[in-house]
Amino acid sequence: MQDFGLYFQLGWQHICDWQGYDHILFVTVLCGTYLLADWRKVLILVTAFTIGHSITLALSVLNVVKVNTSLIEFLIPVTIVLTSLVNILNKERSAITVRFSYFLALIFGLIHGLGFSNYLKSLLGTSTNITAELFAFNIGLEFGQVLIVLAVLIMAYVIIKLLKTPRRDWVLFLSSAIFGIAFIMCIERFVLIKFK
């Protein structure tokens, strides 16, 4: 039980760590088009992302899937750039674009799970009985993700409802800023890819 608490803490701290802010940027831009009133849609969106990253996190940590670490580190900001572009280009939140967002969250979750696994594998070392640690770490990731989502929704509420900023202006500002940061990350990480 003590290990559960430790790995739970490591999970939420990892996703909320400002030094590795790429996951924070992704969750922020993923939920950046929603308001508190849209909590059901956000729940489905975050669940899709969770399913994706839970699958690849487990497969990678259990050594079922082996990945090129530098390629994954490049693909993570690519997911942020693409999600930002979807937000910028979609002027209306139709049922089709919402479903497309769910699909992207699931697919991009697969990539982020591989990124999470690199960190978790470094913590586990040569340990062989890792099921409990994997579960605790994943629950910690979810807790951290919920904290980020709540912060984004509260920020959107303040900016849109209290400061009377048009919703589209908020989405364009947030998504464009995150696009710029992630695009620079893509360029920096592309040169570090080691093809095997």
TrEMBL record:
<feature type="transmembrane region" description="Helical">
    <location>
        <begin position="20"/>
        <end position="37"/>
    </location>
</feature>
<keyword id="KW-0812">Transmembrane</keyword>
<feature type="transmembrane region" description="Helical">
    <location>
        <begin position="170"/>
        <end position="192"/>
    </location>
</feature>
<protein>
    <submittedName>
        <fullName>ABC-type antimicrobial peptide transport system permease subunit</fullName>
    </submittedName>
</protein>
<feature type="transmembrane region" description="Helical">
    <location>
        <begin position="135"/>
        <end position="158"/>
    </location>
</feature>
<feature type="transmembrane region" description="Helical">
    <location>
        <begin position="96"/>
        <end position="115"/>
    </location>
</feature>
<feature type="transmembrane region" description="Helical">
    <location>
        <begin position="42"/>
        <end position="65"/>
    </location>
</feature>
<dbReference type="InterPro" id="IPR032809">
    <property type="entry name" value="Put_HupE_UreJ"/>
</dbReference>
<feature type="transmembrane region" description="Helical">
    <location>
        <begin position="71"/>
        <end position="89"/>
    </location>
</feature>
<keyword id="KW-1133">Transmembrane helix</keyword>
<dbReference type="Pfam" id="PF13795">
    <property type="entry name" value="HupE_UreJ_2"/>
</dbReference>
<keyword id="KW-0472">Membrane</keyword>
